[in-house]
Amino acid sequence: MPKKETKEKAKKKEKGSHEYYKIEGQELKRLRPSCERCGTGYFMADHGNRYTCGHCGLTRYKQQS
Ligand SMILES: [Zn+2]
Fold first, then answer.
1. Based on the structure, what is the number of domains in the chain?
2. From CA 43, how far away is CA 34, in angstroms rounded?
3. Is residue 11 part of a domain?
C-alpha cells in the first residue's frame, strides 16, 4: 500500500527555483542563461546589458539582434 499524502503537504508551494524559470502555457522558458564554465545549474545574474556568473565571475554580454 502506498503512503497517503496529506492535502496540506500537496498544497504547499515550493520556492526557490521559480525565479529562474518562467512557465508560459506548457512551455518552460529559461529567464537566465546558465554559466558556460560552471555548467547548467549555475545561473547568471542579469546586469542590464550583460550577464555575470556569481560563481566564477564570468561575464557574458547580451547579444543584440
Ligand atoms: Zn560560472
1. 1
2. 4
3. no
Quickly count: other Cβ atoms within 10 Å of residue 19's Cβ.
10
The pLDDT tens digits of the residues spanning 19-63 come to 556 666 776 665 678 899 999 889 899 888 999 999 999 999 988
Indicate whether 14 belongs to any domain: no
Evaluate whether residue 48 is within a structural domain. yes
Task: Give residue 24 CA to ligand 1 midpoint distance, Å.
Answer: 27
What is the whole-number distance in angstroms between the Cα of residue 47 and the centre of ligand 1?
15
| Per-residue pLDDT, 62 | 86
Task: Give 58 Cα–ligand 1 centroid separation in angstroms.
Answer: 6
- State the distance from the centre of ligand 1 to the C-alpha of 31, rounded, in angstroms: 16
Grid cell, residue 23, equals 512557465
